[in-house]
Design goal:
CATH class of the largest domain: Alpha Beta
Structural class: alpha/beta
Number of domains: 2
Order of helices and strands: EHEHEHHEHEHEHEHEHHEHEEH
Strand content: 15-25%
Number of helices: 12
Strand order of the largest sheet: 3-2-1-4-5
Number of strands: 11
Helix content: 25-40%
Radius of gyration: 21 Å
Bound molecules: 6-O-phosphono-beta-D-fructofuranose
Largest sheet: 5 strands, mixed
Length: about 350
């Protein structure tokens, strides 16, 4: 078989571990492994791909990024991109493993409905793919958030300051909440559970009344400005295409300015940005990316197309792509409440 592998959307630490797992297993069974360059872009105009050999896959489990390259490529503007991808898969590959987040898996599901021999792999640093407890990259991201908060803690305490830390999380608060929980943030502000600016000020004042003269607030980049007393002027990006890039929209700075202006606190902002996506994956990401990558290869061999290996109850389970492709998994109340206890 000619088995293609692509990575689409934003990169995430652990992608190479998944490519390695699926690729190595396929090579061992005597198949050709084709690395498609730059996500869907590699299938649209010309077929941009090259064979992957054992030597390409060796030593990459601990490397961040993706050896295949990736792009945020809009297949619907101009129209016809999806049909071209469908044709290209038919002409060039016997199966395709598409590693990506909700946008990628929506396309994969559309292609599978039209007969493409496609299997997904769950990846999004934001951890909000439906139907899976694990997404490639998330564990590394929250480890970086936690380490950053550890560092900010000492300087915040020394200067009696409020530190606002903006994390990734385009539509959901998983990174802010679990990174914040691990790093001891005393307040997390996330899209799922909106807070007013007055409530945030009261939180800082409550700490002050209890002798805690500094505060660390983790805010997800996707929090709507209007919930904080601002105006949400631009359409929020769903794919990073056509809308605003959330990190440049500046919710962290906006919140910091409001806190200074309305309450007179001494505030500093740190936007963690792409530091959360760069560098080596954690052991957790390496292991689970390997497991879902191996699961995708198994699905290909068993011709279970239109599916995606997900993680549920610590097991890799194969489910239809339609189960992950229809929305975002929101942060549960229970985790959010736990974040509010320790301050
Ligand atoms: O989807 C993952 C993510 O890291 C989001 O958290 C973030 O908003 C977006 O990608 C940034 O994308 P880009 O690298 O294209 O700016």
């Amino acid at each position: 078989m000619r088995i293609g592998i692509l990575t689409a959307g934003g990169d995430a630490p652990g992608l190479n571990a998944a490519i390695r797992a699926a690729g190595e297993l396929a090579l061992r069974d005597g198949h050709d492994v084709i690395g498609v360059a730059n996500g869907w872009a590699g299938l649209v105009h010309e077929f941009t791909a090259s064979p992957l050999y054992d030597r390409d896959l060796r030593g990459i489990i601990g490397q961040g990024g993706t050896l295949l390259g990736t792009e945020r490529f809009d297949l619907d503007h101009p129209a016809g991109g999806r049909d071209r991808v469908l044709e290209s898969i038919g002409e060039n590959l016997d199966a395709l493993i598409a590693i990506g987040g909700d946008g990628t898996q929506r396309i994969s599901s559309w292609l599978a409905d039209r007969g493409a021999p496609i299997v997904g792999v769950p990846k999004t640093l934001d951890n909000d793919l439906l139907g899976t407890d694990y997404c490639i990259g998330f564990d590394t991201a929250i480890s970086i958030v936690a380490e950053s908060l550890d560092r900010l803690y000492t300087t915040a305490a020394s200067h009696h300051r409020v530190m606002v830390v903006e994390t990734m999380g385009r539509s959901t608060g998983w990174v802010a909440a679990l990174g914040g929980l691990a790093g001891g943030a005393d307040l997390v502000v996330v899209p799922e559970f909106p807070m007013t600016i007055e409530e945030i000020i009261e939180h800082v004042n409550h700490r002050r009344r209890n002798g805690l003269m500094f505060s660390i607030i983790a805010v997800a980049e996707g929090v709507h400005l209007d919930t904080l007393g601002g105006v949400e002027s631009s359409r929020l990006s769903t794919e990073g295409i056509g809308g605003v890039r959330l990190a440049t929209r500046g919710v962290g700075n906006f919140l910091a300015n409001k806190l200074e202006e309305l309450a007179g606190f001494d505030v500093r902002t740190t936007v963690l940005g792409h530091l959360q996506r760069g560098g080596a994956p954690t052991a957790h990401d390496r292991i689970w990316a390997t497991r879902v990558g191996a699961g995708a290869y198994k699905a290909v061999i068993e011709q279970k197309f239109g599916t995606i290996p997900v993680v549920r109850n610590n097991q890799v389970t194969l489910v239809p792509l339609t189960e992950v492709a229809g929305g975002q998994r929101k942060l549960p109340r229970e985790i959010y409440d736990l974040c509010s206890i320790f301050f």
